[in-house]
Specification:
Shape: globular
Largest sheet: 5 strands, parallel
CATH architecture: 3-Layer(aba) Sandwich
Distance between the termini: 36 Å
Structural class: alpha/beta
Mean pLDDT: 89
Order of helices and strands: HEHEEEEHEHEHEH
CATH topology: Rossmann fold
Low-confidence stretches: 217-233
Oligomer: single chain
Strand order of the largest sheet: 2-1-6-7-8
CATH class: Alpha Beta
Number of strands: 8
Length: 233
C-alpha cells in the first residue's frame, strides 16, 4: 500500500515514535537536527519519556544551487564532503572553504541562541536517537553520526519519517539501526512527503526546547527567551 505522506512534522514525529517504543526510558537521549528535526523529535522524546536535546549540524550548499548538499559540518571540526568534492560541478577548494566558514558562523549563532548556557548532553553509554525530518543526500546525518560516535554512545539509532533508499542503506552500515518510515523508490525531495512543510523558525525551535527542558528540574531551558511572535516566519 502506497504511503500518503504526513500532514506536518509533528504528525510525522508521532508516527515515528510508534516505531521507537522499545527505546522508551530515561537512559534514551533524542537528539534533533535543527531546525526541521526539532518538531519531529519533540513528540518522539515525549512518547518515549526521553531527554530531548540538539545535534547541531549544517548543510554545505553547492554554490549557486544551495538546495543541493555538497557536504555538511558539525561541532568539533567535523566536516563530511560528498564524493568528488571539490571538483564536482566545478566547485573549487576555495569555494568549499568559504561555504564552510559561513556555515560555521551560523552553527555558532544557533548554538548561542538555542542552548545558551545549557551544558552539552552526555552521550556515553546511552541509547542515542538522531532525528531529522527527512534524509536526502545523508550528508548532514553522516556528520551527526560522526560527532555522536566520538562520544561512545551505548547504542546509536538514526530515525526519520522519510529517506532516499540508497542513503538509508548507506547509513545502516554506520549505526546500530536506522528507523525510516518511508523509503520511496522515486524519492525526489523530503518536502514532497509533507502536506505542510513550511520552514521551521528559530522561535519554534526555542519554544519546543523550552517545553522539553522545563519538564526537567534544574535545567537551563527554563530560562530560554520567549519567542517574538511579531517576527516574520
Amino acid at each position: 500500500m502506497e504511503h500518503e505522506g504526513f500532514s506536518d512534522r509533528a504528525h510525522a514525529g508521532r508516527q515515528l515514535a510508534r516505531r521507537l517504543k522499545r527505546y522508551a526510558g530515561s537512559q534514551t537521549l533524542v537528539l534533533a537536527l535543527p531546525r526541521g528535526g526539532v518538531p519531529v523529535a519533540f513528540p518522539v522524546a515525549e512518547a518515549l519519556h526521553a531527554e530531548l536535546d540538539l545535534m547541531l549540524v549544517r548543510k554545505l550548499g553547492l554554490p549557486g544551487q544551495e538546495e543541493f548538499a555538497m557536504g555538511a559540518i558539525a561541532g568539533g571540526g567535523v566536516r563530511v564532503l560528498q564524493p568528488g568534492v571539490p571538483g564536482l560541478m566545478g566547485v573549487t577548494q576555495q569555494q568549499v572553504d568559504a561555504v564552510t566558514l559561513r556555515e560555521e558562523q551560523e552553527l555558532a549563532r544557533r548554538e548561542r541562541r538555542y542552548r545558551g548556557a545549557r551544558p552539552q548532553p552526555v552521550l556515553r553509554g546511552r541509547t542515542v536517537i538522531l532525528v531529522d525530518d527527512g534524509i536526502a543526500t545523508g550528508a548532514t546525518m553522516e556528520a551527526a553520526v560522526e560527532v555522536a560516535r566520538r562520544q561512545h554512545p551505548g547504542r546509536l539509532v538514526v530515525a526519520a519519517p522519510v529517506g532516499a533508499p540508497d542513503t538509508v542503506a548507506a547509513l545502516e552500515e554506520q549505526v546500530d539501526e536506522v528507523v525510516c518510515l518511508v523509503t520511496p523508490p522515486r524519492f525526489r525531495a523530503v518536502g514532497q512527503w509533507y502536506r505542510e512543510f513550511d520552514q521551521t523558525t528559530d522561535e519554534e525551535v526555542q519554544d519546543l526546547l523550552a517545553q522539553a527542558w522545563a519538564a526537567t528540574p534544574g535545567q537551563e531551558g527554563k530560562r530560554r527567551p520567549q519567542p517574538n511572535r511579531e517576527e516574520p516566519t
